[in-house]
Each structure stands twice: as C-alpha cells, then as structure tokens.
C-alpha cells in the first residue's frame, strides 16, 4: 500500500490534503500509521471508525 500511494500522491497533496479514513477500527489505525509514515500531518487525517 505505501509504495502504491507514494506514486500517486503529489508533494503538494502530501503537505496540504485532508484525508478522511473510514472503516473498522483496526483498519483505520493501520491506514493512519501508513499515511503518517508517508509524511501526512496527523492533524489532516480525519477518521470514522465503524463498529458493531
């Protein structure tokens, strides 16, 4: 996943984009970690954790 994302995300998007992550709690946490490793600012990552 990270290798695929870094190829399609521009440096401008990396610095300025807001990202909404939706899914199960474990998946949301995984995606958040991966995006932070790529350089996304934590404050720009929004999430909705789906639970049942």
UniProtKB/TrEMBL annotation:
Protein origin, superkingdom: Bacteria
Name under which the protein is recorded: Uncharacterized protein
